[in-house]
Amino acid sequence: MGKFLLLAFRNVFRNRRRTSMTLLMVGGGVAGLLLVGGFFAYLLRGLRESTIHNGLGHLQIFNAEHFRRDEVHVLDTGIGNWRQVAAKTRTAAHVRGVAPRIDFYGMLSNGVKSAVFMGSAVDPDIERSMGFSPYLSAGRDLGGNENGEVEALIGTGVARSMSVKVGDGLTILAVTADGALNGIDVQIVGIVNTGYKEVDDRYLRITLPSAQRLLQTDRVTNLVVGLDTTERTDSVAAELGPRLSGFAQEMTLRKWIDLATYYKQVRTMFNGIFLFLGVIVFFMVLMASVNTILITMFERVREIGTMLAMGTPRRWVVALFMVEAGLTGVLGALVGLAAGNLLGALLNASGLHLPPPPGTTFDMHFRVLYEPGLMIASSLLVIVSLALASIWPAIRASRLQIVEALAHV
Amino acid sequence: MDSLVYVDSVSRIFPLDHRHVLAVDEANLRVEPGEFLAIAGPSGSGKSTLLNLIGCIDRPTSGRIVLDGQDTQTLKTERLAALRREKIGFVFQTFNLIPVFTAAENVEFPLLVQGVAAPERRARVAAALESVGLASRAHHRPDLLSGGERQRVAVARAIVHRPELVLADEPTANLDTQNATQLIDLMRDLNRSLGLTFIFSTHDQRLLEHTPRIVRLCDGRVVADTQAAEVNQAQLSAPAIH
């Protein structure tokens, strides 16, 4: 076996120029996939974490009714005993915090103009402790204690639409849990830029007690659970499920991925693009390699005839060519891994910025993540491609007529 | 004693364009173990074809070849390959060494194919190279060897697995007189010392002068099978010249 592999290895470098070109082609394919895949991974990770830390959290606990029917009145499918549920949730390992939230909507008015808002009510201290702080373009976050004015954060689009700034006042109107109309005056303490124009045009955030006074209820829509790392989401969800049984209201648990519709759409799109690129690389390597291996085979016809004349089993000839192709694939993959990682490091150090993606308002760093799974997949792709490319030439070589092969010039 | 090789009314026809070429025509031949035999004739007389048939790298159109008691016509491709692996060694006109292997590794190749264990392979390779006088060149690749040295490596490769029969197709065609003479003497030495049966095709008079038996072909037919008149018993038992 060792001598057989040695023969294959030496044959790979028989024509160094041709082998170098093949390695460059294969390595280029791997490096390209690593850079593109690593960039996509960076984008997705950023999107994942921003999705989670911009309010989605790692897990959310709901009243099970919330997903069975629409609300008749505000928060009639909310969680009544949320304090007990939150307390039990905090006992699970890796839970960083549990934040009660109310989602509600209504109208904003500056006395002259009105606009619809999509609001959330939070406990600011808990939100901050969990790292769920909105990105402020002006002002400050909500305070924990509202001894006087009711504080509010609004989106940049709302501020522009209502022609208001930090320190100005607005009136909020909403329907209460009883179906009546209620309103409160709020003071703007901060202006939020989420990076998504559609969100910023409707954004409103007030404190939980203020919202409960406005809506005349002590319920919350859900409890948002923050973990110490995103990677523990599945394990904590599995642990929490049994703990949430036994309450008067049936509780249900959702992971962030279940609720992050936009993230899933982006991920599916990126996966599709990457798969398409992978198919292109696969077939490019395959087609180019078939040609190269055939040329190699024709150059060695007499040698193959000699081996067959000496009684070498034909399957050895097939195996020899396939092993040579596999070795070339491995070497090409190593070249690609080295080049891809080096180029990735250089790009990461370059400080390159890309313009804001559509629908966002922030430009972003160009970075490439190192993904072991991606390295393995890209390497296997080219190795398999080369191995497949060698099958036909290998079988052709093994079926050579010995006499004709020996006479080959 | 049964013949080592029995060629029984063998013919070989090759299709060529819209006609057929009768390369070997009803050839009959018996070769006994330990013989040193030349198949001679002009170009196109069927020498190489007959040698290929005896070596089981080609199949006769009619007739049969019995090698060491086995009718090769009844054997499938894989069994023929095994037969060649075990019982036949080949020496080619153009040496046909594997260029990426050293001399030792080339000689080792038939033992690799047979599955011989590494320690035994090393010992037999060393002995084979020693027998052809190339022990000092064992680690040189073919491109660093002269033509004569390459052909001697080829002879070592042909005998390392202790075959019953060594077939050489025009082994001296690409060698100068000195190297050709040395090769011939080497082959005669191996024939005498190891009892190896040599059959070679040639039109090289230098080789024929040292050959005790010559089978002459003309247009694919065996026209003569003689002990060479100028090679008598005294020459056969004379010491070889190196």
Account of the 3D structure:
By secondary structure, chain A is an alpha+beta fold. Chain A has two domains: 2-51 and 263-406, no CATH class; 80-248, no CATH class. Chain A has helices at 2-12, 16-56, 82-90, 124-129, 156-162, 197-200, 208-215, 233-243, 256-259, 261-299, 301-309, 314-350, 372-398, 402-406, and strands spanning 59-63, 95-109, 114-122, 136-139, 150-155, 169-175, 181-192, 203-207, 222-227, 251-255, 353-354, 364-365. Chain A has a six-stranded mixed beta barrel. In chain A, strands 11-12 form a two-stranded antiparallel sheet. In chain A, strand 2 (95-109) and strand 3 (114-122) form a beta hairpin. In chain A, helix 1 (2-12) packs across helix 12, helix 2 (16-56) runs antiparallel to helix 10 and helix 12 packs antiparallel against helix 13 (372-398). Chain A is elongated, with a radius of gyration of 31 Å. Chain B is α/β, with parallel strands linked by helices. Chain B has one domain (5-237): Rossmann fold (3-Layer(aba) Sandwich). Chain B is globular. In chain B, strand 4 (62-67) and strand 5 (70-71) form a beta hairpin. In chain B, the strands form two sheets. In chain B, strands 6-7-8-3-9-10 form a six-stranded mixed β-sheet. Chain B has a four-stranded antiparallel β-sheet with strand order 2-1-4-5, with helices on one face. In chain B, 35% of the residues lie in helices and 27% in strands. The A-B interface holds A 3-4, 6-7, 10-11, 14, 302-303, 305-314, 316, 402-403, 406 and B 52, 55, 57-58, 77-78, 81-86, 88, 90, 92, 94, 96, 98-101, 105, 108-110, 112-113, 157.
What labels would you give this structure?
heterodimer; A: 409 residues; 2 domains; six-stranded mixed β-barrel; two-stranded antiparallel ribbon; 19% strand; elongated; B: 242 residues; alpha/beta; Rossmann fold; six-stranded mixed beta sheet; four-stranded antiparallel beta sheet; 35% helix; globular; disordered C terminus
